Amino acid sequence: MRVAPVGGTAVQDHVALAEIELCGELIIAASAAEERLSLESIDEVLRVGEERDASG
């Protein structure tokens, strides 16, 4: 079993951190909504369209 070294040298997984941030934003949007979020609203919160625009 590997244990992270002590002293703040732990490696950060930037992809995992980004996913956690997006999940948090989605939870906030869902809790603020009066009704279920539409697929379009979810895409907006997750910035799906921005990803497609940037890659195209």
Provide a brief overview of the structure:
The protein is mostly helical and 56 residues long. It has three helices and no strands. It is elongated and about 45 Å long.
Taking the sheet with the most strands, its summary is: none
Distance from first to last alpha carbon? 43 Å
Provide mean pLDDT, rounded: 82
Using only CA atoms, what is the Rg?
16 Å
Strand content: under 5%
The proportion of residues forming helix, as a percent range, comes to 55-70%
Describe the structure.
This protein is mostly helical and 56 residues long. The protein has one domain (14-55). The chain has three helices and no strands.
List the helices and strands and how they pair.
Blueprint: H1 14-32, H2 39-45, H3 48-55
Labels describing this entry:
mainly alpha, single chain, 3 helices
